[in-house]
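RECORD TYPE: inverse folding
INPUT: C-alpha cells
STRUCTURE:
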C-alpha cells in the first residue's frame, strides 16, 4: 500500500511537469522500506500535490516550482566554569522552509531585492509543529505556502515593472533545472547520557582552577541531531539524518597594560563516543591554560612588513579567511534601490586566470569523511536545493577553474554542481583540500623564511603557529572582547583573524622569541599569489565559517612572501584592582 501511494504521488508530479512516468516506478522501487513514506513525507507530498493543482490567484501565474525543506533539530548543551555548571539546556525544534517560484526558469521572483526587505528575507514558517502530526504539519505547510506564493507574485510583478522602467534585460536565467534525486536514509535520534556529560563538563572546567591568572574560562559540550525531509516538484525526495558532537573550551587572560588575550579549542565528532577521552581533554585544557599564561610574559610586538610562515592551524585559518569565502559563485541582484546590488567576490573576474602559485591546487570534496583518522565535517549527500553534490577541481596548478555553485546561474556558472543553499539563493563550499606538487620540511621552511628576510634587509621574520577563529573573535563571551568590530573599510579588503602564537625568528641566528599584541593589517586576494612554499605536514583543521557551522580545511603549512602586521590597539581597560580569589588556592 505504501509503495503504491508513493508511485501514484510521484506519477502526479510527472504528469504535472512532463517528467517520464518511469521515474515514479523507479522511485517506488527505491522506497521499499515500510517506514520510507513516514508521516512527514505524507504531509509534505500531499500538500505539494494540492498546491500544484489549486494554488493560483486570478490574473496571475501558478507556481512553476515548489519545494519543502523540513528540518528537525534535537539539541543538548551543557556549559561549566571552574567546576560549576553554568547552563544546561536541551530542546527539539522543527523549521519548515517553503520555496515557491512563480514565472519560469528564465524569469521568476528571485534575484531581486524588494523595498520590503523584512518580507523578502522571511524564508521559514513559524508555525511548524514539533510533534509528528499529519494534519498539524499540513496546516503549517498550507499557510506558509500561501504566504510565500502571494509574496512571490508580488515580487515578480515588482521585478517586471522595474526591469521595464530601467530597460533591463538579464542574459541570465533565474533558476536552473536539476534532475530528480532520491536519498532515503534513516532519521536519527539522540542517544546521549546527559548526566554523564554534565559530570564530565564539571570535571573538565575545574582544570582551569590550576591557572589562577586566567580572567575567564569555560568548557562546553553539545550534541545535535539534524534530520531533513525534502520534496520538490521535480520529483526529488530525500530524508537524511546526521549527528554531531562537540567539546569546546574558551579562556582569556589580561596583561598588565589591560590587553585581553583569548584562545579556545574544540573537538568535533559524529557522536560523543568518538570525541577525545577525558584525560586527553584535560591535557588539551592544561595546554590552553599554559599557552595563555606564557603569552602574557611575552614582549609587545611592533609593526612589521615582510614574510610570514603560517604553520598548521594558522595556515587553515589563513585560507579560511582569504580563499574559502571567495570560491563560491555569487549573483548580482536587481534592486529597487539601484540598478543592481553587486557581488563582492574578488575572484569574480579571475576564471581561467592564475590566482595562486602553479604548484598549488584546490579541491572541494563533499564526500570526504576522514583524514588521517580524523572525522571531517562539511561534507553532505544532498545540498539544500535537493541536488546531489559533485567533487570540484576549483584551482588547478594555480589557475581558477570552477566555483561552488547552486541552482542560481551566475556570470561564471550556468548550472549547479550541488553546492546550493536556500537562505539567499547562493552556494557554499564543503571540505576543501589544498594540494602541492612540491613540499618542504619545517626546517627548510624556516630556512626559506629567514632567507626572504635577509633579502628584504629585515632583522627578524615572523612565524605564526596559531590564529584565532573569526567567529570566536567576533562573538567572544568575554566582556571586553565583545566590543570587537570587524574591519569593513573596503568591500575588497580581507581581514585575517588575530594571531595567537606569534614568534620573531632572528634572520641571522634563527633564534625564536614569542611576541604578543600584533594583528594583521587588512589585505586582499592578491596575497594568495605571494605564497612561495608549502610544507610536507598536510593535516585537517576545523574552521568555523559561520556561528556553530564548521567545515574542515585540509592544508599544509604555507610561507607567504609579504604581509603587513601592526601593533594592536584593541580596546582595553585597567585590570581588576584586587587579585583573583583563585590566587588564594594556588599551590
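DESIGNED SEQUENCE:
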Amino acid at each position: 500500500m505504501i509503495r503504491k501511494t508513493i508511485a501514484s504521488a510521484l506519477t502526479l508530479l510527472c504528469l504535472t511537469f512532463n517528467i517520464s512516468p518511469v521515474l515514479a516506478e523507479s522511485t517506488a522501487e527505491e522506497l521499499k522500506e515500510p517506514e520510507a513514506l513516514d508521516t512527514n513525507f505524507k504531509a509534505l507530498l500531499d500538500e505539494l500535490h494540492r498546491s500544484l493543482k489549486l494554488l493560483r490567484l486570478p490574473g496571475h501565474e501558478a507556481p512553476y516550482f515548489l519545494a519543502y525543506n523540513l528540518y528537525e533539530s534535537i539539541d543538548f548543551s551543557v556549559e561549566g566554569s571552574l567546576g560549576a555548571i553554568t547552563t544546561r539546556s536541551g530542546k527539539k525544534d522543527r523549521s519548515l522552509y517553503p520555496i515557491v517560484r512563480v514565472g519560469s526558469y528564465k524569469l521568476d521572483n528571485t534575484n531581486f531585492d524588494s523595498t520590503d526587505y523584512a518580507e523578502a528575507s522571511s524564508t521559514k514558517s513559524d508555525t511548524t509543529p514539533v510533534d509528528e502530526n499529519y494534519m498539524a504539519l499540513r496546516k503549517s505547510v498550507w499557510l506558509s505556502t500561501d504566504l510565500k506564493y502571494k509574496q512571490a507574485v508580488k515580487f515578480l510583478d515588482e521585478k517586471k515593472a522595474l526591469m521595464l522602467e530601467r530597460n533591463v534585460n538579464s542574459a541570465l536565467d533565474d533558476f536552473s533545472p536539476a534532475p530528480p534525486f532520491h536519498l532515503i536514509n534513516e532519521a536519527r535520534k539522540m542517544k546521549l547520557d546527559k548526566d554523564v556529560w554534565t559530570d564530565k563538563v564539571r570535571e573538565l572546567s575545574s582544570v582551569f582552577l590550576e591557572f589562577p591568572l586566567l580572567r575567564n574560562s569555560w568548557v562546553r559540550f553539545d550534541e545535535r541531531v539534524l534530520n531533513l525531509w525534502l520534496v520538490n516538484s521535480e520529483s526529488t525526495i530525500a530524508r537524511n539524518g546526521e549527528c554531531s558532537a562537540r567539546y569546546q573550551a574558551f579562556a582569556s587572560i589580561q596583561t598588565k597594560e589591560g590587553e585581553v588575550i583569548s584562545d579556545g579549542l574544540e573537538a568535533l565528532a559524529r557522536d560523543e563516543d568518538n570525541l577525545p577521552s577525558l584525560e586527553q581533554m584535560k591535557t588539551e585544557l592544561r595546554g590552553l591554560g599554559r599557552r595563555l599564561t606564557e603569552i602574557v610574559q611575552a614582549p609587545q610586538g611592533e609593526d612589521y612588513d615582510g614574510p610570514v610562515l603560517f604553520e598548521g592551524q594558522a595556515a587553515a585559518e589563513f585560507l579560511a579567511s582569504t580563499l574559502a569565502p571567495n570560491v563560491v559563485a555569487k549573483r548580482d541582484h536587481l534592486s529597487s534601490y539601484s540598478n543592481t546590488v553587486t557581488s563582492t567576490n574578488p575572484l569574480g573576474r579571475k576564471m581561467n586566470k592564475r590566482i595562486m602559485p602553479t604548484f598549488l591546487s584546490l579541491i572541494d570534496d563533499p564526500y570526504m569523511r576522514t583524514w588521517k583518522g580524523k572525522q571531517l565535517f562539511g561534507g553532505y549527500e544532498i545540498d539544500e536545493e535537493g541536488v546531489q553534490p559533485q567533487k570540484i577541481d576549483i584551482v588547478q596548478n594555480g589557475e581558477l577553474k570552477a566555483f561552488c555553485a547552486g541552482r542560481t546561474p551566475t556570470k561564471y556558472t550556468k548550472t549547479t554542481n550541488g553546492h546550493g543553499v536556500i537562505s539567499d539563493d547562493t552556494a557554499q563550499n564543503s571540505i576543501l583540500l589544498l594540494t602541492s606538487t612540491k613540499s618542504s620540511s619545517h626546517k627548510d621552511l624556516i630556512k626559506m623564511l629567514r632567507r626572504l628576510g635577509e633579502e628584504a634587509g629585515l632583522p627578524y621574520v615572523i612565524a605564526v603557529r596559531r590564529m584565532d577563529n573569526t567567529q570566536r573573535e567576533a562573538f567572544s563571551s568575554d566582556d571586553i572582547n565583545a566590543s570587537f568590530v570587524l574591519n569593513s573599510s573596503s568591500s575588497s579588503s580581507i581581514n585575517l583573524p588575530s594571531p595567537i602564537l606569534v614568534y620573531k625568528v632572528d634572520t641571522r641566528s634563527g633564534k625564536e622569541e614569542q611576541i604578543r599584541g600584533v594583528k594583521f593589517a587588512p589585505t586582499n586576494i592578491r596575497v594568495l599569489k605571494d605564497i612561495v612554499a608549502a610544507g610536507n605536514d598536510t593535516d585537517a583543521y576545523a574552521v568555523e565559517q559561520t556561528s556553530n557551522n564548521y567545515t574542515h580545511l585540509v592544508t599544509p603549512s604555507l610561507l607567504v612572501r609579504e604581509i603587513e602586521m601592526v601593533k594592536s590597539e584593541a580596546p582595553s581597560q585597567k585590570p581588576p584592582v584586587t587579585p583573583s580569589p583563585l590566587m588564594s588556592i594556588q599551590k
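NOTES: The first strand starts at residue 63 and ends at 81.
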